[in-house]
Amino acid sequence: MTEIERSSRNNLEGIGGWLNPSRYGWERISYWFQRLTGVFLLIYFIGHVYETSTIVNGQNAWESFLELTQTGWGHLFLIMVIGASTFHSANGIRLIFTHVGIGLGTPGRPDYPYSPASLNYRQKSGIWIALILAAAAMFYGFNVLFGV
Amino acid sequence: MIMSNTAENKNEKKIRLKVYRENRGQDSGSHYDTFEVPYKKWTTVLDALLYVKSYMDPSVAIRYSCRMASCGSCGMKINGIPKLACYTKISELETSTIECEPLPNFPIIRDLVTDFSRFFDHHKSMHPYIEAKESSVDDTRKGTFSFYQSPEDVDKYLQFSYCIKCGLCYSACPTVGTDVNFPGPQALAQQYRYFADTRDESAKRLDIVDDRHGIWRCHFAGSCSKVCPKGVDPALGIQLLKSYMLGISKNDKVPAKKIEVESIDNRYNSSAKTE
Ligand code: HEM
Ligand code: SF4
Ligand code: FES
User: Fold this and answer.
1) Which of A26, A93, A111, A114 would best serve as a mutation to test chain B binding (most B beta carbons within 10 A)?
2) How far apart are CA B266 and CA B238, in angstroms?
3) Which residues have CB under 8 Å from A125's CB, separation 6+?
4) Nearest residue by C-alpha to atom 10 in ligand 1
5) Which value does ipTM take for this structure?
6) For the structural domain made of B117-258, what CATH number should be given?
7) Which of A44, A148, B20, B225 has fewest C-beta within 10 Å?
8) Domain A24-101+115-146 - what CATH class?
9) In Å, how far is B176's CA from the nearest CA of chain A?
10) Contact indicator for B99, B79 with CB cutoff of 8 Å
């Protein structure tokens, strides 16, 4: 290690780097949202397992826990779960293809102004479709839960 | 502190350049200096910084050489995004203040100059050279043979060979930002560059990147390809490499044929005779 290396901080962007999705276009937003929804779904999933396990304490315990989702805030939480799972699944399927190199185009001879093959409109449309599906699912969920 | 050169023509357009200042050698903390610099339609951020060095504050540290997006020395964070200073015109930024900061994910040496040691180490760990079984460097020097590659063979790796090692992709990558052992987009794309080259016969390329901190930490955030100034598209190379590792793409590379050619000495002598 050089003297410079030893004496300087690494100057890493750290977690702050991925918490700010605004600088690098739709693909970075997809990365950020996939992770955010993934972590959110994980929290939901743990809560969900806990919720369903209350049945072992009898019907009363089960029903009183279920009451939580029957409040306004409970409804909003469920709507977020609907949106997050729709986006995460739809975009997740897109990502499965990209991670194995499908739908990204082929290498060629880049010319100025360069437009990278992997950031093509098929991929961007995939992200937009996932967002639109999530919004539609949330809208539907809102109507079911809050509709009169 | 705002510095401006008052001897300039009043009608000239001026830009405020906010420059990050820090000298790691002296450990005196960091601050920003602001300079008002005249500019024209074609003035680049590098031109403006050189103006600062010439007429306002020679102590501002920058690294540059070619001034034409070829050497990869002048990368810095310009208005929050990694860019080459020589390849970024002030007029196209459309802001009244331009903030110049050192590239994130690279240790700072002084002001806008960062340490590329780790970045180059990752590059070197990829074996960034052709490994062919029956030909040594000496053979190549003698110049008695050459490899045959069709234009299609060349297209498979050409764009990745345009990399100038400027580090912008490394700086934009969110995985690098939290894991210094991750090789980063530049190095991984170079692994693909040699993997796809029909002259290369190394059997180790996929193993090198198949590491706990290796290629699988790429989540295809695409930011590397977004900032690359040479159209390398490192994200594409990385996903294609994964495709081979997962067996989705089959490696049916046909090794490049070696063709005997007249040695360089003979060619030189015969052309000298005909003149
Ligand atoms: C149809 C269902 C699902 C699909 C297709 C799917 C797909 C994916 C894919 C492809 C990734 C990798 C993204 C990347 O490489 O960046 C991912 C990440 C993730 N998923 Fe899922 N997933 C699904 C359901 C879930 C569920 C139910 C949970 C929570 C329990 C979850 C939690 C996560 C987490 C935490 C990540 C990490 C985010 C990251 O890598 O940045 N996923 N998912
Ligand atoms: S891949 Fe592009 S951005 Fe990354 S080092 Fe090479 S030229 Fe620079
Ligand atoms: S000075 Fe060479 S790339 Fe900018």
Assistant:
1) A114
2) 43
3) none
4) A92
5) 0.90
6) 1.10.1060.10
7) A148
8) mainly alpha
9) 8
10) yes
Closest CA to A33 of A131, A145, A132: A131
Q: Report the C-alpha gap between B195 and B128 in whole angstroms.
A: 10
Q: Domain B5-114 classified CATH 3.10.20.30?
A: yes
The β-bridge partners of B14 are: B38
Which pLDDT tens digit goes with each residue over B64-118?
Answer: 999 999 999 999 999 999 999 999 999 999 999 999 999 999 999 999 999 999 9
Q: Quote the percentage of chain B above a pLDDT of 70.
A: 90
CA distance B270 to chain A (A): 36
Rounded Cα gap, residues A61 and A63, in angstroms: 6
Please give chain A's pLDDT, 148 residues, in tens: 454 444 446 899 999 888 999 999 999 999 999 999 999 999 999 999 998 888 888 888 888 888 888 899 999 999 999 999 999 999 999 999 999 999 999 999 999 899 999 999 999 999 999 999 999 999 999 999 998 6
- Ligand 1 pocket by Cβ (under 6 Å): A 34-35, 38-39, 41-42, 45, 88-89, 92-93, 95-96; B 219
Reported pTM: 0.90
What are the sequence ranges of the domains in chain B? 5-114, 117-258
Extended beta strands in chain B, E state = 2-4, 14-22, 30-38, 75-78, 81-84, 97-101, 108-110, 113-114, 145-148, 257-260
Hey, what are B133's tokens? Answer: 């079984």
Using an 8 Å Cβ cutoff, are A73 and A120 in contact?
no
